[in-house]
Amino acid sequence: MPKMPKKGDLPSKICAACGLPFAWRKKWERDWDSVKYCSERCRRSSRSASSTV
C-alpha cells in the first residue's frame, strides 16, 4: 500500500465565498480544478448572494 502524503504537502486553494484556505480532499480527486468553495455552506451562500444582486 502506498504511503499517503502529509497533510501539509496536499494542494490547497482559497475559498471563493469566505476567503479561507482549504486543502485537497479525496472526494474532490476527479474534479479538483473545478472546486471553488470549501464547503456546501459556502457554495450555497455564494449562489444566493449573487442571485439577490
Q: Major β-sheet, in short?
A: 2 strands, antiparallel
Q: Gyration radius, to the nearest Å?
A: 13 Å
Uncertain residue segments: none
Kindly name the structural category.
Answer: alpha+beta
What's the N-to-C terminus distance?
50 Å
Element layout with pairings:
Layout: E1 12-14, E2 21-23, H1 40-52
Antiparallel strand pairs: 1-2
What distinguishing features does this structure have?
53 residues, alpha+beta, two-stranded antiparallel ribbon, 2 strands, 11% strand
Can you tell me about this structure?
It is a single chain. This protein has one helix spanning 40-52; strands spanning 12-14, 21-23. The chain is α+β, with helices and mostly antiparallel strands and 53 residues long. A two-stranded antiparallel sheet has the order 1-2. The protein is elongated and about 50 Å long.
Q: In summary, what is this structure?
A:
The protein is of the alpha+beta class and 53 residues long.
